[in-house]
Amino acid sequence: RREALTRLRKARAVTLDGERVRLYANIELPGDVKAAVEAHAEGIGLYRTEFLYMNRPQPPDEEEQFRAYARVARALAGKPVTIRTLDLGADKQVDGHGRTALTANPALGLRAVRLCLHDPALFRPQLRAILRASAIGKVRIMIPMLSSQDELFRVLDLVEETKSSLKRAREKFNPRVPIGGMVEVPAAALSADLFAPYLDFFSIGTNDLIQYTLAIDRVDDAVNYLYDPLHPAVLRLIALTLEAGRKARIPVAMCGEMAGDPRYTRLLLGLGLKEFSMHPATLLQVKQNVRASDLKSLARFARRVLKTPDTHAVHALVDEANEGSD
Ligand code: PEP
Ligand code: MG
Predict the structure, then answer these.
(1) Where does the record place the PEP-utilising enzyme C-terminal domain (predicted)?
(2) Closest to 254 (Cα-Cα) out of 231, 283, 276, 280
(3) Contact 43/73 with Cβ under 8 angstroms?
(4) How far is it, in rounded angstroms, from Cα 320 to Cα 316?
(5) Is position 84 annotated in a ligand binding site?
(6) Which tens digits make up the pLDDT trace of 142-164?
(7) What whole-number distance in Å separates Cα of residue 215 and Cα of residue 228?
């Protein structure tokens, strides 16, 4: 089995009925690119830049960030890298920066894009560094934790402002760098159609989407038995986001753990997901599932799952689909 997986590395991620699926890798540090390239990922679908800020007293300056992003962009040799802007706060607290004082509910607090908009002095150097790296490779910007249109507009304004300042300084960047938003707050999934006209792509962050939809702290072991990617509410929000993307003709990816769990590949394909981003270690298994899938029958299967009210029955249906195809 292992040998078969290794041989899959160079195989294309295409379904039995010829649909092309894109499999990307998630990385946390530039050094992780190697594993992504070895797994033949189509690029990086999620670069968690906050890891550059953690375990140190001072945030990295623009130059240090530029070097890190440029290194990743270069190592990918023309394949895209989706650089997610800083997602600090909640489960990724920083010590020493003095910005994320512990609050009662950090996951609901000043986190990710909220923190960045609250503190433009923290955000601007990152935007400059990402934009500069866009002159070196195929860089895309991704905004975490969007929950309102207004927030998105404020980010887009800052990006424009940063571009103008780079232009004045004669720094190179890609003026048309794609900007996408993460859908990981239920509000964003429910109003994805309102975000879509202003974005180049969506990426569904199921780790947080599940946490916020089901009101389950993702790091609290006591409630982890309730953490269920197949909860009907979660599946409906995923389906809504995919529909909004289809209508607005922008691609929808998924970069939460659900995308890298081979148990869910068939259901996600059936719901219409075409771009998966995951830890490189699970990429070949997911590819194996993609290549064994018939999209048309999976679409029928997904419609049936969406109509199934009871979670146990949903799990049974998904198990059955996986057993039948193994
Ligand atoms: C997610 O929430 O699904 C996600 C990909 O982001 P993170 O796990 O870094 O919060
Ligand atoms: Mg998240």
Answers:
(1) 5-293
(2) 276
(3) no
(4) 6
(5) yes
(6) 999 999 999 999 999 999 999 99
(7) 11
- What the block records as the tokens of 268 is 């996600």
Cβ of 184 less than 6 Å from ligand 1: yes
Judged on CB neighbours under 10 Å (0-12, 13-18, 19+), 105 is exposed
Measure 297 CA to ligand 2 centroid, in angstroms.
31
Confidence check on the interface: ipTM exceeds 0.95, yes or no: yes
Is 62 annotated as belonging to a binding site? no
Whether 255 sits among the annotated catalytic residues: the reply is yes
Q: Mean pLDDT of all residues in the chain?
A: 94
Query: Is residue 139 a contact partner of residue 177, using CB atoms and an 8 Å limit?
Result: yes
Tokens of 262: 């081979």
Q: Output the CA torsion sign for 286, 287, 288, 291.
A: positive
Neighbours of 300 (CB within 10 A): 11
- Nearest by Cα to 115 from 126, 129, 128, 131: 126
CB 235 within 8 A of CB 211: no
